Amino acid sequence: MEFTTADLSDEHPDSVLAAEPVFRDFGGIDRFWGPIETVRVFEDDNALVRQALESKGGGRVLVVDGGGSLRSALVGGRLAGLALANGWAGLLINGCVRDSEELRRVPLGIRARAAIPRRGGKTGVGERGVPVTFAGVAFIPGHFLYADADGVLVSHRNLLPGAHP
Predict the structure, then answer these.
(1) In DSSP terms, which residues pair with 33 in a beta bridge?
(2) Which residues are CB-neighbours of 58 under 8 A, at least 6 positions away?
(3) Any idea what DSSP says for residue 6?
(4) Is the pLDDT of residue 1 over 70?
């Protein structure tokens, strides 16, 4: 289903929160939406990110809170491919990605703060399925995320009833 975040914001002003414009587009598609799933990790540890993306996405958006770290990447080409294969609608990363040229070829929505070539760690420290807050917005599992070229919106309810991510 086609939508724009500007239209959703206009049509549902009391139901949406707009994330601060701190994310860059790295994915092969520029518009995505779906129910939120979350992972909070320590800076550059992507073991829980992999674990989440190995599960069935069912059209959800994985929101990864890496504390805004710019030290190393939380997602690269392999994890983006895994997300696509398992039916995730997109990724929103409060941290970095790598393999940016490869990410552009994956038909998946991907937003992150920056790109860096250094890969992340693998200790598995973190939490899954918990509310996370960054960019001025609380991302709560089960709420909905909408992203396009204008930015990222979050709503406690589905603003596109009858549509499937």
Answers:
(1) 146
(2) 87
(3) H
(4) no
Amino acid 1 reads M
| One-letter amino acid for residue 156 of the chain | H
Q: Does 165 score more than 80 pLDDT?
A: no
The reported pLDDT for the residue numbered 163 is 77
Cβ pair 46, 124 in contact under 8 A: no
Measured between alpha carbons, how far is residue 145 from residues 14, 36, 102, 149, 153 in Å?
15, 6, 24, 14, 6
Please report which residue ranges of the chain form alpha helices under DSSP H: 5-11, 47-53, 77-85, 100-103
- pTM to 2 decimal places: 0.95
87 Rama class: left (phi>0) / alpha (psi -120 to 50) / beta:
left
